[in-house]
């Protein structure tokens, strides 16, 4: 074990035990203690190594060894010092406790951080879900009333407008104002409402009454209600897989690809 960077020196005890040592022997004893503490285990009983530790020649070490041996227990090829061994054990216990405390504190911080992050995420998710539900409920309740008002306004406006003879003949560009008779058929309300929600959800910017009139034209003039509903269903499925840049264009292409006008199946 690597020892702590400091060593406890009990000055009173040290002086009481070493009053008979010479200055040279004091220095040698201190160097032995320091080396013992630094490496964290008993000194190897090797004269050459011990002479190097105390910075003495082999001959001089041989002279002072008997005096210094009295502070150690020399056995099994090592020099043991009971006081240093006790201090090393205490230091080891202290280090182990500090490591365990540090790991426990780190785990607690990580757990707290993870719990806080999960709580925040759950709260945000709940807020989003509640907001979505409120918006969806509000939209469902207000949709029919809003469509009714906009339709009344559009009908009044359409009564003042004259047809444009230069209007495009492509059904995707046709003037929808000539199809107001079709949008009020009660049997097709589910198609109108469902189609309106799908097309507006995909970014169609036209007013609701215009969207309903274009759907009514497809049902009454060109195709039947079942075919138009199938086209809307296919559009909705395709939108889940990727962006649809022209939703009405997609519906026209689907109907042309699968059916002739008036509901006949295309061969």
General description of the model:
There is one protein chain. With 267 residues, the protein is mostly helical. Among the domains are: 11-80, Arc Repressor Mutant, subunit A, CATH 1.10.10; 176-263, no CATH class. The protein has helices at residues 11-18, 23-39, 47-53, 58-69, 82-160, 180-183, 189-201, 208-222, 225-241, 247-258; strands at 43-44, 73-75, 78-80. The protein is rod-shaped and about 125 Å long.
Radius of gyration: 47 Å
Number of strands: 3
User: The biggest beta sheet, please?
Assistant: 3 strands, antiparallel
**Which series of helices and strands comes N to C?**
HHEHHEEHHHHHH
Q: Helix content range of the residues, please?
A: 55-70%
> Which descriptor suits the 3D outline?
rod-shaped
> Unreliable segments (pLDDT under 50, ≥5 consecutive)?
165-183
Report how far apart the termini are: 88 Å
What value does the average pLDDT take?
79
Spatial strand arrangement across the major sheet: 1-3-2
Number of helices: 10
Structural class: mainly alpha
The fraction of residues in strands falls at under 5%
Please describe the structure with a list of short key phrases separated by commas or semicolons.
three-stranded antiparallel beta sheet, rod-shaped, Arc Repressor Mutant, subunit A, 10 helices, mainly alpha
